[in-house]
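FIELD: query
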Amino acid sequence: MFTLWFAIHTLSSVRAFVGAEGLWSKAQKDAFYQLRKYDLTHNESDFQEYKKFLEVPLGDHKTRVELLKQQPDINIARQGFIEGRVHPDDIDGMNKTIQAIL
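FIELD: result
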């Protein structure tokens, strides 16, 4: 039973990481598109959209930097995942998986 529980939780965390990678990639592409659009139109709403999309990779970066510390603050890592648009139900499993790897 323990092995099954471990496998399910680990696979769920891996699925969440794959989903987060997709969110990161899409947000990066959309941020670039909005910045390019802003360069052409100089419309302030395009620049605000650029900043909104940029929050995802910046949130992921915040989490990565925190989790690489000797004594990471899990609350900061959690906040970074939330800013990276990771579903709150997946965050604890992702944190545990990362800490097990490191």
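FIELD: remark
Helices lie at 2-41, 44-67, 74-83, 88-101.
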